[in-house]
Specification:
The protein contains 16 helices and 11 strands. By secondary structure, the chain is of the alpha/beta class. It has 3 domains: 47 residues, no CATH class; 138 residues, no CATH class; 195 residues, Vaccinia Virus protein VP39 (Rossmann fold). A hairpin with a 3-residue loop joins strand 2 and strand 3. Helix 8 packs antiparallel against helix 12 and helix 13 packs parallel to helix 14.
């Protein structure tokens, strides 16, 4: 904690007895009693969202998801061979960042390389289609200014790619008489699909805490074994850039979902556009982190939001896998996330840091008790923030 007992972030400064709230968009300032905030935390969080950028972000996400749905439907209705849904959508999104959309499209191969897109034939997209997409992006009622791709990916990428991933796992939504229905009213049940994302603010905080002890290293090796759309790896790049880190950066990411990996590669490429010239070696693969060929590596920092799958939701094969990973720490009905944590601990370099999100049951339920007790001797005492209950749990 900084001197004088003050915790700071871009939005709130909290003292021991009060909370000072500063609105970044208006500059207005308020002082609230800490006890009052803690007793009505849910109400306070809703208040923070009022007149905030979050509402604008939601509007941008809905707009882009509508475009993605229409793009998928258009490709499927075309008689000629069409490019892959997601790859071509990311390609079109990348072109919106270029000054000359058609000129960039005619240099399609260089755009594919610049944004780390998997190879496909960009000539399958006509000039007229590219121009129309470019215009449609800017016609959003929620975005009166030019959409800047890296900023959009940074602030809305997690939620956007979560929705896009869910769309890919489902059948395209059919066109109605008046076009595609409002995206906000046709959101898919992501929990049933097992698709989750990490809020950017939370990812940023965890990443800053995890990287801080390693800034004196000549090389920092960072891994996210369940990287999804790459939000932790992108935040790692931005944290190191803000801290003016001069050493070499090595990033690894893995996910079993190929669409997620495609989105992660695109996100990282966008993040690196803001840090030109720095030595960053990175690799994101569609692979299982538990594969022996992958986990032979050691990392200084491991960041992750592992799959939160309860014992009841696991297949028989997954249950057997969890038993094998936990070994003598197995008991009861552990969550799949405990296997990710246990495996990650064995792949940290000496003095390495693991920063992870955990489901509540792993921390305080009976089903996670055996794993907590067996792991305690090998873990340092660390503060854990219990977001649901607004209280701190000290392990």
């Amino acid at each position: 904690m900084p001197p004088h007992g003050i915790w700071r972030c871009s939005t709130v400064c909290a003292r021991v007895f009060c909370i000072r709230l500063i609105r970044r968009n208006s500059g207005s300032k308020e002082t609230l009693e800490r006890q009052s905030v803690e007793s009505r935390l849910a109400e306070f969080l809703r208040y923070l969202e009022l007149d905030s950028d979050s509402q604008k972000i939601v509007g941008v996400i809905d707009h882009l998801i509508r475009l993605f749905r229409r793009h998928r439907t258009t490709l499927r209705q075309a008689n000629a061979p069409s490019p892959p849904d997601l790859q071509s959508f990311l390609y079109l999104l990348a072109i919106t960042e270029e000054e000359d959309a058609i000129g960039a499209h005619h240099r399609g191969e260089s755009i594919i390389e610049k944004y780390s897109l998997s190879d496909f034939d960009p000539t399958q997209l006509s000039d007229d289609y590219v121009l129309r997409f470019n215009e449609d992006v800017r016609l959003s009622s929620a975005s009166t200014r030019r959409l800047v791709t890296p900023l959009t990916v940074r602030h809305a990428g997690g939620a956007l790619f979560q929705e896009a991933h869910a769309e890919i796992l489902s059948d395209p939504i059919q066109m109605t008489l008046f076009g595609l229905a409002d995206a906000a009213r046709q959101r898919l049940d992501l929990s049933k699909l097992g698709v989750y994302y990490t809020p950017p603010g939370l990812a940023r905080t965890l990443t800053e805490i995890a990287i801080e002890p390693h800034l004196n290293r000549d090389v920092i090796r960072i891994n996210d074994p369940a990287c999804g759309s790459g939000i932790f790896l992108c935040e790692a790049i931005r944290v190191l850039q803000r801290r003016k880190y001069a050493g070499k950066v090595v990033l690894f990411g893995h996910d079993i979902s190929f669409p997620a990996v495609q989105m992660a590669r695109f996100s990282i490429a966008c993040a690196l556009l803001d840090w030109p010239g720095h030595q960053v070696d990175w690799k994101v693969e569609a692979a299982d982190f538990f594969d022996a060929l992958i986990t032979k590596h050691r990392f200084d920092v491991i960041l992750m939001n592992p799959p939160f799958l309860s014992w009841e939701a696991l297949t028989s094969e997954q249950r057997e896998f969890v038993r094998d990973v936990l070994e003598d720490k197995y008991a009861g009905r552990p969550d799949l996330s405990t296997a990710f944590i246990q495996e990650s601990l064995t792949h940290l370099s000496p003095g390495g840091t693991l920063a992870t999100l955990l489901p509540r049951g792993v921390l305080d339920s009976q089903r996670g008790r055996r794993w907590r007790e067996a792991s305690a001797p090998t873990l340092p005492k660390v503060p854990c923030v219990h977001f649901a209950a607004s209280r701190q749990l000290i392990n």
